[in-house]
Amino acid sequence: MPPARQQRPPSRFVSPTFAAFACIAAQTLFLLIGGDGRGDECAGFWQQGFDVACNSQHPADAYIWLHLGFGAALAVLFSTIRPFWPRPDILFLVIFCAAVWEMVENTSFVIGLFSYDEAMGYSGDSLRNSLMDTAAAAVGALGAFALPRRLALSLVVMIELSVTLAIGDGYVIGLLRTTGIF
Question: Could you tell me the CA-to-CA distances from 33 to 99, 103, 170, 180 in Å, in that order?
Fold first, then answer.
């Protein structure tokens, strides 16, 4: 039986750092062209309470925890399916996925799909909230790199449960909304 071949890391056409900045620039441009506000009318760094007018307009809100978990979960997934890939490449993939999600999440189609409408006060993230969510995913990935996989995934589950209990929203509830169950 021939020896198992090791998976080689992807060849580098550009550095992962440059590629990550390019993703963030594309995200910024997409959101600026889409006309998303800067959330200037909502003062402060963290959204305190549930002011409908400021939902996802501050740089940080309760959803930032979900983005930390999203980054950690992606880092564990990519590290599991591509164990020989360098961490900077995996971190780039997490940033890429987070940036793409932020662009898709802020389209009117997805806002409608999740049943987040004007009655709920959500018309899309502000640019600074969206960029902070992407940064949170990167931080979550870095945290997952430092932890055993099972612990990282346990923290992701704890984050989901905590956010769901705190604000009545999360990945599971969002999935249930898109299927019409919730």
Answer: 15, 11, 28, 31
- In angstroms, how far is the first alpha carbon of the chain from the final one? 52
Nearest CA to 83 out of 7, 142, 11 is that of 7
CB atoms < 10 A from the CB of 143, how many?
16
Res 36: pLDDT: 59
Among the listed residues 127, 112, 115, the one whose alpha carbon sits nearest the alpha carbon of residue 31: 127
Residues 6+ apart with CB under 8 A from 102: 27, 31, 125, 130, 131, 133, 134
Quote the CA–CA distance of 14 and 175 in Å, as a whole number.
Answer: 35
pLDDT in tens, 30-88: 988 886 555 566 777 667 666 666 777 777 888 899 999 999 999 999 999 999 999 99
Which of 71, 105, 74 shows the shortest CA–CA distance to 174?
A: 105
CB 38 within 8 A of CB 113: no
Cα–Cα distance measured from residue 107 to residue 123, given in angstroms and rounded to the nearest whole number: 9
Residue that the structure tokens 């750092």 belong to? 17
